[in-house]
Design goal:
Blueprint (H helix, E strand, L loop, with lengths): L17 E2 L4 H10 L6 E6 L8 E2 L5 E3 L8 E8 L6
Antiparallel strand pairs: 1-4, 2-5, 3-4
Keywords: Plasmid
Length: 85
């Protein structure tokens, strides 16, 4: 990602780690949150135990570390931003 802004449009991380969705509803919520105007990808993560996750003050879980590329699988590519009607 380099200098790309975060999914919520921020320039800095909300937490020191990677937020992970617990299921389809939460995944869709994170995708809809995208307000950067660009498309997003959805990745599936393997090899992370629930006990390794930390709950943020907002109630979402994140992994406080680096997730190895071997633990990722691209499941949806270039989802367009949600249209606000």
């Amino acid at each position: 990602m380099g200098a790309a802004r975060g999914i919520a449009g921020s320039y800095g991380p909300e937490q020191k780690g990677c937020f992970l969705a617990a299921g389809e509803w939460e995944r869709d919520w994170f995708v809809r949150m995208n307000n950067t105007g660009g498309a997003v990808d959805v990745w599936e993560v393997h090899g992370i135990d629930d006990g390794d996750l930390v709950e943020s003050p907002e109630g979402y879980y994140f992994f406080p570390g680096v997730i190895a590329a071997a633990e990722l699988r691209l499941v949806q590519r270039d989802l367009p931003p949600a249209q606000n009607h």
